[in-house]
Batch of 2 targets.
Target 1
Amino acid sequence: MAQTIDDIAALCGVSRATVSRVLNGGPVSSVTREKVQLVLDRLNYRPNAAARTLASGRSGVIGVVMHIDPHLLFQDPYFSQLLQGMSDVLIEQDAGMMLWLATQPKEQLLDRILSMGMLDGVVATAYDVKDPLIDGLLASHVPTVLIGHRRPDRSASYVDIDHVHAADSVTSHLIRLGRRRIGHITGRRGTVAAEDRIVGYQRAMDRARLPSEGLIVDGDYNRPSGGAAAQTLLERGVDAIFSANDAMADGALEAIKQQGRRVPEDVALAGFDDLDFSAHLDPPLTTVRQGVRQQGREAANTLFQLLADRGGGPRRVILPTELVIRQSTVGGVQRG
Amino acid sequence: MAQTIDDIAALCGVSRATVSRVLNGGPVSSVTREKVQLVLDRLNYRPNAAARTLASGRSGVIGVVMHIDPHLLFQDPYFSQLLQGMSDVLIEQDAGMMLWLATQPKEQLLDRILSMGMLDGVVATAYDVKDPLIDGLLASHVPTVLIGHRRPDRSASYVDIDHVHAADSVTSHLIRLGRRRIGHITGRRGTVAAEDRIVGYQRAMDRARLPSEGLIVDGDYNRPSGGAAAQTLLERGVDAIFSANDAMADGALEAIKQQGRRVPEDVALAGFDDLDFSAHLDPPLTTVRQGVRQQGREAANTLFQLLADRGGGPRRVILPTELVIRQSTVGGVQRG
DNA sequence: TTGTACGCGTTATCAT
DNA sequence: ATGATAACGCGTACAA
């Protein structure tokens, strides 16, 4: 049943090398090629992947590491879209995907990935500022592309968005609307996105010479924490809130309404992510759109570029974001 | 950097075979074993996976095929839990997971999977009664376990629940409550689950000599279709509705309330799945709990059993379900 | 218990 | 353009 390249060669009356050439697009006369191809098709021959990998040194398989709580993984469309984006490119490139989720401790996972060998490269999501898994991956000699994690030493390849800039532009938008006491609900502290967005917020506030003391309240990216943080901010008196993501903004929206305050008249509200539901909130949410699927595509592409051009330095890709203005900040005045 | 088993052997002053034995747990004197192990650890040696696969015939990698719309994949916790369950077992077994989603047509995907070779086996979700991808997988000689798909010819290994029995018990529950005009909202027709649940519903109705004509309305598993179907059923006059899943039941609940009818006083409502939100609906939803994560675990375990005992016939696993009775059928009378 | 030697199915190099 | 033949790194009968 499982035939080898030698069987094909014998049937065609050519050498094994020739068959290999038609398989891999080497120089073969067109007559020979057709003859061999015919047999190949007829027997539905499939080269042995392990042998191929052993001989050539590449497997056509890349690893994808998403070390996050699986519950969250499937809750948040972010990860779904990331996966889809990568999947798109892998199919184009005729490559396979090996997936690792967070069902095990990071150290153990790292060991497992490296032991798996046979991976041409790895794409890993990394959100924490410090991450032993990422450190290990980079220390190994497996070509790696990071998503969402800019390493301070700039030695790694990554794909990310400019969180600082994006947060600055949201905050500036609120400032331009005349808001003065603008609160910020942060993401989970210790993540790159949370820290950078704080910096962006801070930068915009400082530039406008507005006070931000006591106006930064920690959240954890989850909806409930947004409600709690909003509560706190309302007590401290704010006329606008910039939430580090849409999920928390949703929670904040509920809390604000519950206090009998109007959005945006009393409190303008902005989020980050532009999730599906964000456009359908009441009122629709002003937010930052980051093309997540595109990030996934870009990450995979970057990895393939890395593989094609070894020796080339690390590749760093910063994807653009888009401020999506809706009624939660501009009320009925404009339609966005 | 990348050392081979020969390097280790040389460093230890033993033969390659001995190193291989300590690696794979063969018969080695304890002194030799320790000596070799020491070097192994010190050099952090990792055997080449491709060579290993080529020589031994097994790769330690299994394929997981979920040919469903990626959007749905991450929307419905069902898939997340399935994946987690499989992941659990794979880790125990020290195996890797190769994941394929539905980013490509089924025929093409099949070809890709088979070309990937080097897979020890495959777990595939299969919901349609007829599915060329599944047919191809079974026709190939890759050990395969199906989830959610009982083949009529009984030649395949699968893990599933007894949809007929479960649907029967839900319907019987409604009948015991004195309901007489019980409607059924089906899942997407052509899926095994939808068809089997219809059979179970039908069976219970027939046994009680209750009419079911015109009381079966097609849905598609999605929430909106549940609302539409409920509308139709209300017009036809029902005092109970059994929805083929919770998402549609949620839609139905909304529709029923919108008509000013009370649940369960006017219309009792039951679903299927026991999703997270089901217990928090108003009123909490009576439904069927199927241990999805357990299904995932079971599927992976079944595959490993299959691999351990080749030649053994197909393995069929039917997992139990549990009727979860809540206020959407029993009102305030009982608490469940 | 240990070592020898061959085979796994390709790719790639070097002649021809 | 094609054909020998040597790797690739490991597992495993078989022999010692």
Target 2
Amino acid sequence: MTQTDPLARKLRDGLERLGAALRADQWAALADAPLNPTQAQILNFLVKRGGARVGAVAAELGVSQPTATDSIAALERKGLAQRRAETKDGRATLIFATARGRALNETLQTRVGATDRALAALDPAEQAQLLALFINLIRNLQLEGAIAPQRLCVTCRHFRPYAHDDANAPHHCAFVDAAFGGAALRLDCPDHEEAKEAEEIWLKFSRGAPTGDAAREAVP
Amino acid sequence: MTQTDPLARKLRDGLERLGAALRADQWAALADAPLNPTQAQILNFLVKRGGARVGAVAAELGVSQPTATDSIAALERKGLAQRRAETKDGRATLIFATARGRALNETLQTRVGATDRALAALDPAEQAQLLALFINLIRNLQLEGAIAPQRLCVTCRHFRPYAHDDANAPHHCAFVDAAFGGAALRLDCPDHEEAKEAEEIWLKFSRGAPTGDAAREAVP
DNA sequence: GAAGTTAAATAGGATTCCTATATATCTATC
DNA sequence: GATAGATATATAGGAATCCTATTTAACTTC
């Protein structure tokens, strides 16, 4: 592909538009809070991961390492994050959210913005569709090396796509040993372990249910 | 809704992730160009619209008006945009891309980044699905007043959803007087005219094809 | 152990991005 | 038509983001 195809170009424009709306939303949600969207995003990442290196923060935000250092310093000044030496590697620094940081993150994460409402207004089938498409895109970006590996179900060694007949919960997670449906697929699971045979799992997943109705819905 | 529902929350996270990837992409694509993603986005907007007011630029980017003024000034310093008095309204300023600006925009828009490739890797049916979902979301945001009115087919008075029997091109545009399919729906059409009966058009569109197979695909 | 690689910090600087306010101009009202 | 209010932008002021290039320290490899 030497040229963007028109539809992909349109989708990028749409993504850009939604991204801008999300960013504006975040500023609005933080109007009374002592931080800005970038800091809030880092804080949430630190809480979710229970600490992270500077490089991981930079990769998560998609910014350069010095920028991550800058923003982490801002969080530190505000007493929301702390820096500790990494024992395994003397070059590295681990960043943690403080108790105050965790508490603040908790209140911020429950706030509902315009984008949340727009997403919630989709009907459940559309939401599930969108989630599947996002997972697909994130996986594509990961394969390209454009983003750091995400903790997706579809690349996890515990994931068994279409292990069950139940159309509402066809998948199985071997870690929690439970069946679940497409709407419960995760983008960032703490129990994730990268599968060696990720490609194989993906094929099984993207092929859809293995029964007769696996035929494409586009076909009448 | 006083609390984000879990799936909507997950979708917001996904959107955030894709937005970050897109931003990183834009920086990479502009590595050798004399501007940054924000300026490039403004420049593209100015070219698409053939000029815009400061306020419209701010609304498009989802930033405050002074921020838009700042970035427009940066484009002006670089000789890529120009400011003119708006004749209709003495308070307003119209911003235009210069010939150099238009030329630069042209070369930049043809560049293909990681996000474009990730989108292009989706199969055509998935791309069409994603476009429909984006349109739905953008419309929801517009209804909430969270973003400025976009020039969408689905809110245009020339749009006739499912006017034809052809499953590949069921819609009709009365402006160009031609049939077209879901993949050709626009997010920013220069010929757009806001429909008075937008809600009605939307209902007709979202209900799907009016024939017997209009039943929800979720139903067996 | 030397050379190369990697993680983070530092330096330096342009720009983004905000809120608050000033200025002009338009619009609606008495 | 004068006046009050609303609107469009610019300005002021300042914190942070964000970059590239470089330095420092620590790990890794041969």
